[in-house]
Amino acid sequence: MHEQLAGYIAGPVNAEDLAMAPGGEWVLTSGMTGPTAPLGRLYAVSVADGACNEIFPYRATSALDTQRFLDQPALNPLKFRPHGIDVKLLPDGRTELYAVNHGGHESVEVFEIDLDAPRPSLKWIGAVRLPGNTAGNDVAAVDDGFVVSTTGDPEGRREVSVEQAIAGADTGGVLEWSPGRGWVTLPGTQINTANGVAVSADGQCLYIGGWNSRCLKKVRRGGASADPSTVNVSIMVDNLTWSASGRLLAAGTYGTSMQEFLDGHFGQNPRLGIPSRVIAVDPETLATEELIDYGPDTFGAATTALQVGREIWVGTARDQGLARFRFPSTTRC
To answer: What pTM value is reported for the model?
Structure first.
């Protein structure tokens, strides 16, 4: 058994991404479709006791916010295919959840979360379709909108192939959406296989995980110059989250290739076990520290890591539940 392993949490299936809800009582997870999950779901996991509740589609409601979003039909649960997620506490006290969706069309779905009841509930309030032929991966809330890491061309003028991605070509970047401006391509964010995305607390910097390229890229947002900087890392960087100390947590696999990963991910095995690591990244210097390293028998291939107290909860796109690891005793949270 892995020496840092604190246990497992049952319930979420294919929990590809995790986000802490305001107040710290609930961890929200996406639930990707897969061999044992024909329908996509969203879950809420209690920090206190690990109890898991499905919150979409179960008991979810809908009420389109026509002031922010175009007129559109309500989200069809039978077509929902979630990927990356994020959550934000709004100035008026409401909380919103953003979820990248591959079902039917590429979009970001927006939900209002009710955290006052004993069990969180969701209300779908709208969605924004991605432009051109772009496909989303991860999402991060910013200002009155969000940024999304994408593969593809926002103008729809050229196709991006898996072969190009494997060869190391820049296959996409980060787009930003707001109600007033719509979609904007952020300069300096182009990267091979953009995956996780995070925004600094002051909104000035973006961080992008390069999946096949095994790197992390930092870009200034909204300034006169993007001033990009990149550091190579030991993992195929998947999702990014913030730790309590202000460092980035990046999860991902190693010892495999993009093609091997995709073959396993799109195969019929409900569990994809690949050696995985969680690293902490200094947001200023991009210096990294390894926090967790586990083998394929411990848990599925890591796609996200979230600090929960003195633990790190790890999610995966192909396995049951979550894995809980203790922070190394010598590491600051």
So the answer is: 0.97
